[in-house]
Amino acid sequence: MNKNIHTFLGFESPYDEADIVVFGSPYDGTTSFRPGTRFAPATMRQESYGLETYSPYLDMDIIEDAAIFDGGDLDLPFGNTERVLDMIHEYASRVVHDEKVPVMIGGEHLVSYPAVKAVFEKYPDLHIIHFDAHTDLREDYMGEKLSHATVIRRAWELVGDGRIHQFGIRSGEKVEFEWAKAHTSLTKFDCAGLEDAVESLKGKPVYVTIDLDILDPSIFPGTGTIEPGGITFKEMMSAIDTLKGLNIVGADVVELSPHYDQSGTSTAVACKVLRELLLAIAYK
Amino acid sequence: MNKNIHTFLGFESPYDEADIVVFGSPYDGTTSFRPGTRFAPATMRQESYGLETYSPYLDMDIIEDAAIFDGGDLDLPFGNTERVLDMIHEYASRVVHDEKVPVMIGGEHLVSYPAVKAVFEKYPDLHIIHFDAHTDLREDYMGEKLSHATVIRRAWELVGDGRIHQFGIRSGEKVEFEWAKAHTSLTKFDCAGLEDAVESLKGKPVYVTIDLDILDPSIFPGTGTIEPGGITFKEMMSAIDTLKGLNIVGADVVELSPHYDQSGTSTAVACKVLRELLLAIAYK
Amino acid sequence: MNKNIHTFLGFESPYDEADIVVFGSPYDGTTSFRPGTRFAPATMRQESYGLETYSPYLDMDIIEDAAIFDGGDLDLPFGNTERVLDMIHEYASRVVHDEKVPVMIGGEHLVSYPAVKAVFEKYPDLHIIHFDAHTDLREDYMGEKLSHATVIRRAWELVGDGRIHQFGIRSGEKVEFEWAKAHTSLTKFDCAGLEDAVESLKGKPVYVTIDLDILDPSIFPGTGTIEPGGITFKEMMSAIDTLKGLNIVGADVVELSPHYDQSGTSTAVACKVLRELLLAIAYK
Amino acid sequence: MNKNIHTFLGFESPYDEADIVVFGSPYDGTTSFRPGTRFAPATMRQESYGLETYSPYLDMDIIEDAAIFDGGDLDLPFGNTERVLDMIHEYASRVVHDEKVPVMIGGEHLVSYPAVKAVFEKYPDLHIIHFDAHTDLREDYMGEKLSHATVIRRAWELVGDGRIHQFGIRSGEKVEFEWAKAHTSLTKFDCAGLEDAVESLKGKPVYVTIDLDILDPSIFPGTGTIEPGGITFKEMMSAIDTLKGLNIVGADVVELSPHYDQSGTSTAVACKVLRELLLAIAYK
Amino acid sequence: MNKNIHTFLGFESPYDEADIVVFGSPYDGTTSFRPGTRFAPATMRQESYGLETYSPYLDMDIIEDAAIFDGGDLDLPFGNTERVLDMIHEYASRVVHDEKVPVMIGGEHLVSYPAVKAVFEKYPDLHIIHFDAHTDLREDYMGEKLSHATVIRRAWELVGDGRIHQFGIRSGEKVEFEWAKAHTSLTKFDCAGLEDAVESLKGKPVYVTIDLDILDPSIFPGTGTIEPGGITFKEMMSAIDTLKGLNIVGADVVELSPHYDQSGTSTAVACKVLRELLLAIAYK
Amino acid sequence: MNKNIHTFLGFESPYDEADIVVFGSPYDGTTSFRPGTRFAPATMRQESYGLETYSPYLDMDIIEDAAIFDGGDLDLPFGNTERVLDMIHEYASRVVHDEKVPVMIGGEHLVSYPAVKAVFEKYPDLHIIHFDAHTDLREDYMGEKLSHATVIRRAWELVGDGRIHQFGIRSGEKVEFEWAKAHTSLTKFDCAGLEDAVESLKGKPVYVTIDLDILDPSIFPGTGTIEPGGITFKEMMSAIDTLKGLNIVGADVVELSPHYDQSGTSTAVACKVLRELLLAIAYK
């Protein structure tokens, strides 16, 4: 008799045999409105038992067609943002070093920063595809440089102009939208132009960060800051389908705050988005 | 002064004068994820007082334009699936024998099986129109032949190849989708082709089973297994409108689990779907 | 140190400098199904701190581009409908007299009646644009003349035939739809024809009343009577965008019942609708 | 086959054979904080199916040991308090005239006034036992004479000094507590002295009104105005047990607002309080 | 890097070194009111991370002072009660055979039957201490012999008269209370007499079954059938403390239905009861 | 017309005339389990309108008998604990400097530290009365010195041995309870000995910190870490009553997390506790 094992969708690959490494970063310390994304990875793991392993979208089965290891959640402290980011960076760096693709479950969006950094240190020509309701391009937020509201600005400091491709953006300060015109490729409201972007990135290393609040709150209310006017679930599926064939070297799914949606819909959405994203990464 | 009468939408027809007989089968014993569909018929009856009797979709009024009897809920035992199915079969058979159309409120989807059987015994050339997120075509589920996940497979054992028309399917095992290719007509994701199917079934006896989880969880989160990516409410209305003129000899609306949607939206949706379905049956 | 000030979106204009006056009418005394709209204005004020002041839809910032005063909520009694309506009328009349635009947060839809009356007394050639799921055209409701279900009929008694433009209507009694054919312009289900209506109203004084239940309950479940089949949030944004350039002399946003949507989505939707509506009024 | 009958605890007595008549008055029009008591009687009827008919407290079975008729809910209008009170008075008067004991399920506490009045008109020497968290002794509330906050003051205008026995009171204005010293018997916080009061009332006609918010919100959160510091459920049971043997000629249970307690505890509490109260009335 | 391990309170003992074996039986197939106890063991495991391992009640630390293995949940089918009971019996029998104490997390109360049976087969002189709100002594429930409402009657068929000690009982049919007088020792409402019972059982093998609905719903609303009037949490702690020194050879904690208490209180209560029960078993 | 003012219980004193200054510190950055105390002060202010200003416990009216200013909430950043604590310290210091009593609404318990520090800097002979479920005496928590779990340890570093009086403690690590024996006065489970402590502190400056989770979760589930076994609301009232006559020079009420109790009970409890605490401070 063995101790109780608990992995997303029942993933069974040992670390050494895995191509993809899933792990959770349960941190929400800079969340400015409703905290609770810390509960996302454990809740997703729990609820994933209600999800089929077969995807009729991609006609793939995630247990048969991918080798994935689930390392559980990092044991992060509370109230010390810098230390948290260091721990995530360390973990992601090890995964990257071992030639595997890290796929992180947030947590708030700031956790993407150390993961992007770890991947960027290996792939200096990294591009980022960024799905989100918010620009996340502030220079600082209430005086803080490290914040969910500044994370893409911080990532830009690593990768530079022309490397960040933003989709679905519908909220931010005027100055952020202005700044984006010079430094990133920003698409308002939806994912128009994603196909062209993907085409131009074929062969290049890409990090995909999905802030789930890109989705309309009708289908994804379980998040910190609710922004009506987002994309539908079918548009999200279509966008992920478009990513097939890219060289995705790192990815994350962030900003599920499960307690704010007691129907469980948001968690089910996050699980299916993660399943499809993993299949898109595994797709050959 | 009379005892308190409590019927869906205030239906007033006595049994003998009714063309349609509504009844509830509050069973959820084989539900594999979140139980609670047992509460659906009583909750729908209660909340139906908030619903208008006039449909601007069909320009019909359900009190004026249809003669419907509401027999309340069957008093089903717990934990004995076979006995439950026998009781439903007996009730539905009596309704069919009396030349009325049984319209059942589930409960989980397995309750459709004895109702289909009762109707099939009178109409051996029966066709089934099946709206659902799931294939429900497993040979067995965890060793059990009688399960919400096998109900359409069991129905196929009655009616045979080419008689089952499935719409909206977006979840299942790979083997179920394969099996369907040979035995049913399965449309993935939406209701494309429904008009043609209806056209080809004109004049034939048809059983319509609506698993409400065909709807996207944005509009119908109150169900056992949440499957993002479903049809909108307007698509559902349009599909029901398409059914007008068919010879519908039996029908059901299943898988509302009202406790999982505390906003009441799912129950309101189920009530309106049932109202429109009843009008489509009554339509001449 | 000053006492705690609490205004929608942090509006800072003093009354004398404001062009627009926001105030709340927390009344739900004639609500026939689920009460609770009394909580809407205070909840919206509270939650508005999570909303950006910049609108990427209109490329305007509501603090920079509009001068708005928030007067808080009227202190209305309970159980005496006539007295409540008098108090609202008195407040709105003062605002209109001071050459400002009253923008009221309900409360149930009946609160629109005294506000419309106050505006009509100044602008006898007033037109009304009415967004709603319901006709609200009953002559009386269970014997009561003053009701959320009769409010547009009462408004018609003021402004007369051809002055009321209804959009999104999908529920009512058969007789209401019949009556509308002779007296109002009623569009079922959506906002088709809104552009033409707006074009024809250019230059005329217009009152805009938005019953938020025009929205589909997938995005707006927090209301008294849930009516599936409504418009999407993007359609709502588009409709408000269409209003730009009209001479809006009064407006309201009603029927948010925040307690029935614990995810907070409905309140966030109401806040964003109000922000855009205010910007459309301020637009030059 | 008969139409669906729906009564509290499955009560089966026809009106003519009943000693006690249960009915619901779903009105909450003067509720000043959180409305929703209108849902109490229908919800209690629905949930009563989870309650045993046998009471181990009184060793009685309510189906065997009492003859009770459930007349359902009155069909009350909205927004017209006086008309609502008239309808309740008319119904209660008929029950009293037919020599039966009316037992009303509220609704808010104001509904007790017309029921007390109907009973008082037959029994001019009526005493009132009043369980509540609040004094309900205001002369008016925001200018309104008819209010849940004035109901016992209105009842005092009928029965006069020394006839009202208040227990559990823990909230009110200072002036109300002062007024009570001269006109009622008021016990703060608990039911101390109830036994003596009951002893002194033996043989006299008594109306018992139970505002369920006398209970601590730990066991009864589902009410309009939450007042921590109430009695426990066991104290409530003990108090009702003390009433055995009184000549109770009318009674009510008011102020359950079921939507505010999604665990269902408050509704279960209300059902058990009503069962025990009915048994205490039937007790010989 | 190892796969994600997930155990109650972080229990780390391997099976071979453990004295106590915790496992979950997520079955609720015969629940007659509100299902959902199937979610209890996984939810308790998840939430146990918020619980200290040190008990100030017993001054013991469960990681230091006990060797406990958590085997996870049994993978039970749905809708086939007999097969479920066989699987539980098989698992419990193996644990008993290996000279360890099985401690099961339900599920509904019926799961106690096969566990008691497994323990009884090894210890024919077994006594049962039964904490519950309900008698659970029906001969059958709606015709079914195997039901949560009959489980103690079934256990009595194994162990016989004078072996079952019931505490806290406050609900049942009259006939059950009558039957108990001849066959079990039944204490109504509280745990009076528990100390004497424990004293008389010193040295004998004892199975302890805790139906958590013995607790008042003020502290434990998250269960299928809510019965106001139960014991307080402090009384529960005191009762478990009394069990110290008994030869407990099997135990269970059943009837948590976590979805019905969204505050999480019921789950926290269940976790602490289980911690203290495990410490009482480990106590020397 | 003035901008909308929003204060707890409608407090009207200007800062200069106030004896007591209420303010909110909406910070929950080190919360280790369920965050959300950031919403407490605004929610309490909102819900306080349902609370009477008169206390039947102390026979005082808080508007008549006390001069209190409500300064609203501090505008704290996210993710930088040290900066947050500095801002609270600055505000509290100013209040203390102006010879007024600061009464802070948390936020998590760590916010007490800078408030205690500000008060201690003026009153070096300060004693602390600490109501809590938890010891809060850790040297560090996951490596962090500044944490809700270390706050009383940090306070001890200021005031030293024999100055901290802890009541109601029922959770912590073994080492914390050991440490307390040498450095604080710790009472487990309840408030036994409070009267003696108060007697011994007469005339000395005292800071009172109430972590509301000292209350049993039956009455206060809306908090981060649920600890069954706490005191009742009546015990809390009695404890506060005992504080009358002390020289309270600073106080706080912390750890309400309102979103986790949708019934509103926890917020109502927090409001009443705060009202009574303010009256006890104002009592002469």
Automatic annotation (TrEMBL), chains A, B, C, D, E, F:
Gene3D superfamilies with a match to the protein in the record: Ureohydrolase domain (3.40.800.10)
Xref: SUPFAM superfamilies: Arginase/deacetylase
UniProtKB keywords: Hydrolase, Manganese, Metal-binding
Signal peptide residue numbers: none
UniProt GO BP: putrescine biosynthetic process from arginine, via agmatine
Ranges in coiled-coil conformation: none
Cofactor or coenzyme needed: Mn(2+)
GO MF: agmatinase activity; metal ion binding
Cofactor binding, note field: Binds 2 manganese ions per subunit.
InterPro entries (UniProt xref): Agmatinase-rel, Ureohydrolase, Ureohydrolase_dom_sf, Ureohydrolase_Mn_BS
Enzyme Commission (EC) number: 3.5.3.11
Enzyme class: hydrolase
Domain of life: Bacteria
Lipid biosynthesis is among the record's keywords: no
Protein family according to the UniProt entry: Belongs to the arginase family. Agmatinase subfamily.
Protein name: Agmatinase SpeB
Organism from which the protein derives: Peptoclostridium acidaminophilum DSM 3953
Organism taxonomic ancestry: Bacteria, Bacillati, Bacillota, Clostridia, Peptostreptococcales
Encoding gene per record: speB
